[in-house]
Amino acid sequence: MRAIDLRPGPEGHAAPVTDVAFRPDGKRLATCSYDGTVLLWDVTAPARPRPLTRLHHRRLVNSARWNPVRPDVLATASADKTVAVWRIPEHPDTRRPELITVLARHTDDVNAVAWMPDGHRLICVSEDGRATLWDTRTGTFEGEVGSHTAHCMMVSVSRDGLVATVGEDGLIAVRDPDRPDRAAEYRSTASVEGCAWSHDGRTLAITRDDGVAELLTPRLAVRRSVTVAGTAARAVAWAEDDSSFVVGAYDGCLHVFDADGTRRHRFGDPRMWPRSVTVAPGGVAAVGSFWNGPHLVDLTTATSLSEPTAPNHGPNAMAVLGGELLVGCDSGTVIAFDPDRDGPERPRLLPVSDSPVLSLTTCGPDFYAGTYAGYVHRCNDEGELLAVSNRLGAPVPSLCRVDDRRLVAGTYNGALIGLEATSLAEVGRGAPHEGSVKSLVPFAGGFASAATDRTLAVGSLRDRSVLWEHGNLVNAVATLDDRIVATVSRDHTVKVGLVERGDDGEGWQVVHRQTLLGPDESVKCVSLLGDPDSPVVLAGSYDFGVYRWRTDWAHGTDLASGRLVDEFRQGVSCMHRIDARRVAVAGWDGQILVVGLDAAGEVRVLRRFDVDMLVRRARQAVWAVAS
Asked: How far is CA 82 from CA 76, 148, 167, in A?
């Protein structure tokens, strides 16, 4: 397993903040990040958080939790499939933290951890659906506490040892490792991503993908249901005295409620990523962000105490407009540059939004950006804002042009929304996917869509055909000449098919299909090059690699492994076909490659660019003009 190499600066993270955890006394904060590190902050003065020291994993870090008995002990959980337990000195800026133990490799990414009240045992929950119990004094596995049929997302332990786990299968399970008779289950109608016991252990708060938070008894009877937002409610935490709780939702806001479910406050910032929230004594909340550090918020007044200091430009989406490659970033900026020049003299920074740009497409002289905040922006090639859609109810991770008059936006909630290309007014909705629409591409006068419900579908808003299903969520789809479709999945496979209209001229059917073996990690993005009779498939993975397969419908075989083309220093985030023989490939390390077919039909790296260098050159050009 290759280690992330993002080289974060001394003042914060080099990628979005995935989790936040206050030490019980509220004087220290641990923040986890996609950059593979945990940063420890002195937050004695919440208006002036000060970074102290950094802990390292090999992959992105999902969770950190302080020990309830020994406040100098911290557990951290990572996508490198390990959990590390650290001893943190009171002044880690002068004395380095000590790694106490690493719990044996798990079978999949570890999403969250929680300490048992004794301070020795730790619960770990994983993408494999399992909740496991470990003794951190010896590093030994003590058994399973429970399991889910889909990803187990979060765990919380009450003060008297009740372990609550929640998952994408909608299951909320309560177990007691010491008393098997204390068990209860409750199945929600939606995926459940967050949970937290009140400090007195009498109420379990859970947050659902449909925007609802529920307050449950220890036996999982529903006390209250609260509609938080029109999009996923992701994280939840309780005030110290249990008089209120706060929910982080994918509308980019913190929602504060009284213990009886009455709304107190709503606080939003487009830079926040509320997949994590924690509350310190005194009512200070910390929440994750897309920038280089956490947000600290006074929950009593719903006002900001401190904010992150610098954006990150991790690339999420690409498009081509007028010979320039557009790159949409976590910062909300679109970077425009000429991919045919080894040293672009004047890359341009187009500030589209304060919220991350998750998707891009073009139509004529304009480009369109879908944002985490749930809007679609229409801009001209100078970046001037021409129109903004109404809020679409959830982040917009996918966007494509159907024709010169219409776009389709796919949302985190699974909606497929038609938009008029000029005004961005809504013109219709299609049958939704049962999960986030991860990828949209034009296809035969309509579009192809890939989603976390494991399916690939093609057609129009009102008439769609499911072509195939993967064993896990589908991350991306690509098409070639309205004949070839390829998808990539978290099941580590690539599927590529030759499709045609059904015998009755309606719908679509698969004529040939092959399943190709990807690397042993989630395959994130895909593109197609060359001749439809023998297309070249390119795919990028969370293992940092870009791979290629050559498909032969007459003699090709399933389960062929790809050939490594190149490697990044982080996962590969997105691809976009520049023309019939070239593809741009971007990684979360900020590298952008232009790869293409040479005369012999082999895939080669033609050019390399670095997002941070492009940003610096663009700013230097602006400063030179201004001076």
From this structure: 8, 19, 20
CB 114 within 8 A of CB 65: yes
User: CA–CA separation, 23 vs 484, rounded Å?
Assistant: 53
The closest alpha carbon to 439, from 489, 486, 397, 407, belongs to 397
CB 153 within 8 A of CB 187: no
- What's the CA gap between 420 and 425, in Å, rounded? 5
Which class for 398: exposed (0-12), middle (13-18), buried (19 or more C-beta within 10 A)? buried
Summarize the confidence of residues 289-296 as an average pLDDT: 97
pLDDT interval class at 624 (50, 70, 90): low
DSSP state of 14: S
Contact predicate 482/471, CB 8 Å: no
Angstrom CA distances, 425 to 175, 352, 367, 413, stand at: 49, 19, 16, 19
User: How many whole angstroms separate alpha carbon 561 and alpha carbon 563?
Assistant: 7
Q: In whole angstroms, what is the distance from residue 116 CA to residue 109 CA?
A: 21
Q: Which two tokens stand for residue 33?
A: 């990040």
For position 66, what pLDDT does the model report? 98
Whole-model pTM: value is 0.95
Query: What's the chain's average pLDDT?
Result: 94
Tens-digit pLDDT profile for residues 243-265 = 999 999 999 999 999 999 999 99
User: Going from the N-terminus, what domains does the chain have, and what CATH number goes with each?
Assistant: 17-306 (2.130.10.10), 315-626 (2.130.10.10)
Q: In sequence order, what are the residues at sequence separation of 6 or more whose Cβ sits closer than 8 angstroms to the Cβ of residue 173?
A: 131, 146, 148, 164, 165, 166, 183, 184, 185
Residues contacting residue 143 through CB under 8 Å, at least 6 positions apart: 132, 133, 177
Burial class (CB in 10 A: 0-12, 13-18, 19+), 143: exposed
Question: How far is the C-alpha of 241 from the C-alpha of 265, rounded, in Å?
Answer: 17
pLDDT computed for residue 608 by the predictor: 96
Asked whether the predicted pLDDT for residue 627 surpasses 60, the reply is: no
CA 232/CA 424 separation, integer angstroms: 24
* 16 C-beta neighbours (distance < 10 Å), count: 23
| 3-state SS assignment for residue 220 | coil
Rg (CA), the chain: 24
